[in-house]
Amino acid sequence: MNRRLLVLLTAVLCLSCSTIYDDKGVGPKGNPCAKYTPLSSSNRPIICVDDRNLSKLTTNPYETWAKKNSPIRWYTVTGAGGLTITFDDAACVNQDSLSKCYGGASCEATLTSGKKPGEKCTYSITVSRGDQTSSEDPIIIIDTGMYDDKALEPPSQ
Count of CB atoms within 10 A of residue 73's CB? Predict the structure, then answer.
């Protein structure tokens, strides 16, 4: 009896700690920023844009480490639209990939290999809704190594 209970408890704990991945197996389904800030990974960074108060837009994390060629994803906390991303240096990201914004509630881009480890890529995040516009200028720092498509993200909190 005790073994069955232990096996059941272990299965429940394993399932509750797992991350649900999208159809390609590369990222969490839905909005990972809706309830909390997910654990950071320089292999597949996720940046949460807190747009609950447009008079003070913030990103979490503000400074993000990212490996060369890694996919970067931004999500608004509210899931509402109006999100745009603009990099100051075109050599930081693949400009074609930067145009992937889904309803303005999430965007993605692929970091290029044009920068050296430790170099910074500055960019602007802007959220516009109606007559309100707010922006912030966070930073991506190039991490050592290259993106590994086989390495999964850390489990959700």
Answer: 20
Alpha helices in the chain (DSSP H): 2-17, 95-98
d(CA 79, CA 128): 13
Work out the number of other CB atoms within 10 angstroms of the CB of residue 50. Answer: 18
Say how many CA atoms lie within 13 Å of 40 toward its Cβ.
Answer: 14
Q: Which residue has the tokens 């850390």?
A: 154
b/e burial code for range 113-152 (CB count within 10 A of at least 16 → b):
eebeeeeebebebbbeeeeeebebebebebbeeebeeeee
Residue whose pair of structure tokens reads 């693949």 in the numeric block: 94
- Distance CA(119)–CA(92), nearest Å, equals 10
In the predicted model, what is the mean pLDDT of residues 55-59? 93
Phi and psi torsions of 13, nearest 5°: -65, -40
Beta strand 46-50 with 71-76 is parallel
Task: Read off the pLDDT of residues 75-132 as tens digits, 9 standing for 90 and up.
Answer: 999 999 899 999 988 889 988 887 778 878 999 999 988 889 999 999 999 999 989 9
